[in-house]
Amino acid sequence: MFKFKNHYNDILVNNFISFNNDPDLNQGLIKKTVHESENWLEVDSSKTNLKINFLYSKPLLTAEDKNKSKSIIEKYTKLGQNIIWVMLSESKDKLSKDQFQELKLDYEVTYEAMIMKLSEAVIREFQVPAGYELKKLEPKYLNQFIDQIDDGFGKGVIDTTKYATILKMNNEQNICEPIFLYHDSKIVATGNIYFGSQACVIDDITVNSNYRGKGLASIILYELLSKARTFGCENLLLVATKDGLPIYKKMGFQKTGLNIEIYETRN
Asked: Largest alpha-carbon pair distance within the chain?
């Protein structure tokens, strides 16, 4: 629904919106509503157990925009639930990080979209360390996988009910391939790749807080690049944190110009 100058930003954002929540909409309990001529997308999860509500939009630049958004936010604060606002912008103008404090939204983090032609990827040989195993996600590992996702992103940020749905969808078509590193009978790093005709999207890169600094994220990334080549991907997309940018740049990723700013209420 959102349109950007860079077509690959369209692909990345549409993937993000499609798979940030359960694609099955939690058996109909999640409601998606488009507001104001498709400028905003509200994802109402208030009736689910997780209660992770999202609002996606381009920058709110006018007082009228903020006034319209206030009623949406108040709906969830009255319920005592949080809402995560995902701000999508190709603008180079830097907006104040406290611009939404009057709406009781606190700035959390900024992600930057990146792209790489797979033919130009800087890929080095890697070896899985002794005692570690690379595995493809199966139902028997689902709970451990979700625990690691929560460890990596923070509990209550990701709608983790989506992974069971994704595994079921994969039985009918090859949508994506979640993988993980296994060590000492537990999952210590994760990654995922969504397959597409124009680009593949890398997602869910996490490393357990007790295992960081061991190069495990790189092992996951290079394994995902291998899967992208097998699928026939020409372009790879991902979103990067400030800490992840240097790693991705060394691999050959370049910025697409899209910033994704996350704001969250505190209820």
From this structure: 58
> Is the whole-model pTM more than 0.85?
yes
Token pair for 182: 């296994």
Helix, strand, coil % over all residues of the chain, rounded to 5: 35, 30, 40
Token pair 């990701």 is found at 158
- Strand 83-89 with 106-117, pairing: unpaired
Alpha-carbon gap, residue 156 to 53, rounded angstroms = 10
The token pair at 98 is 């406290």
pLDDT digits (tens, 9 = 90+) for 59-75: 876 777 777 788 888 88
Under-70 pLDDT residues of the chain: 36-38, 61, 92-97, 99, 266-267
Q: Are 228 and 203 in contact (CB under 8 A)?
A: no
Looking at domain 118-256, does it have CATH number 3.30.70.1280?
Answer: no
DSSP character at residue 128: P
Q: Strands across the sheet with 186-194, in order?
A: 31-35, 40-44, 53-57, 83-89, 254-264, 106-117, 235-240, 200-207, 186-194, 179-183, 132-136
Dist. CA 4–CA 22, nearest whole Å:
25
Asked if 239 and 16 count as a contact pair (C-beta separation under 8 A), the reply is yes
Where does CATH 3.40.630.30 sit in the chain? 118-256
